[in-house]
């Protein structure tokens, strides 16, 4: 770049490298999604298509940033965990945060039609983002446990609330009054006795959120390659960390075996994209 007398202004830019050897977590959250979900008529309390759109946007972020070892999403938020040793963008906080936030947002819009087929996107959604650093593995586990406990509390409440409104005809105010001061056990009981709903049988994606991990995916004899899988397990328990030892150990994606009929929307989206790319390459090769 040519030098000019104006170049001194560059020295006003401040360095913002994050500490070495700490977990870097970036959490995004939809702005005003209370209104956004209403305007776009999301199913209540959970819209599976809208949640999978979030998941697919998060997969796009993980495909771009190979140092993200885990992402966790629920409602209108997503957390991305970069491995401690990452040197992406020389660990510059503003670069990391702005790239992740903008790629997630553009991917959300880009995939809207695909996931929400019959609905028109009526205005551009946006997401805020923050970076938080966690020095120990326990801190990281506690962070993810905190976000997962949040889903449980909110989802149990929302499920009870919307059943009272949509099935019992209560106003929002009446439903709120009915649930005020209740404990989890009361809400479980209410769902079961009034609506015949066993909360534990509701889709795990609604109850636990979505965990995205890199795995070598094996699907019968048709596929064996590294992809991003979506799980809806309990991260609060030790079992999750024992089942996925690569996360806190020497990082090397583990195996994930899946049957063709059990492929999730998130995996199907990646496999369809691979097939389209391969077809495109064949066409280019032949032409
Ligand atoms: P800010 O984040 O502060 O801008 O507010 P917000 O309106 O986005 O609310 P917040 O992030 O606290 O919560 C997300 C909101 O999104 C929920 O309260 C719901 O209203 C809405 N939402 C998220 N996922 C769904 C869904 O699957 N279905 C429906 N119906 N609403 C959802
Ligand atoms: Mg929000």
Write the layout of secondary structure elements.
Layout: E1 23-30, H1 33-39, H2 48-64, E2 68-74, E3 77-82, H3 93-110, H4 112-115, E4 127-134, H5 137-166, H6 172-179, H7 184-195, H8 204-208, E5 210-219, E6 223-231, H9 238-243, E7 254-258, H10 265-286
Parallel strand pairs: 5-7
Antiparallel strand pairs: 1-3, 1-4, 2-3, 2-5, 5-6
Explain how this protein is built.
The chain has 287 residues and is α+β, with helices and mostly antiparallel strands. The protein is globular and about 70 Å long. Strands 1, 2, 3, 4, 5, 6 and 7 form a seven-stranded mixed sheet that branches. The model has no long low-confidence stretch (mean pLDDT 94). The protein contains ten helices and seven strands. Guanosine-5'-triphosphate binds at residues 29-34, 37, 42-47, 50-51, 75-76.
- In the predicted model, the low-confidence regions spanning at least 5 consecutive residues are none
Give the termini distance in whole angstroms. 41 Å
Order of helices and strands: EHHEEHHEHHHHEEHEH
The DSSP helix count reads 10
> Averaging pLDDT over every residue, what do you get?
94
Overall number of strands? 7
Ligand identities: guanosine-5'-triphosphate, magnesium ion
Radius of gyration based on Cα positions? 22 Å
**How many strands, which pairing sense, and closed or not: the largest β-sheet?**
7 strands, mixed
**Share of helix, binned:** 40-55%
SS class: alpha+beta
The proportion of strand residues reads 15-25%
Global geometry: globular
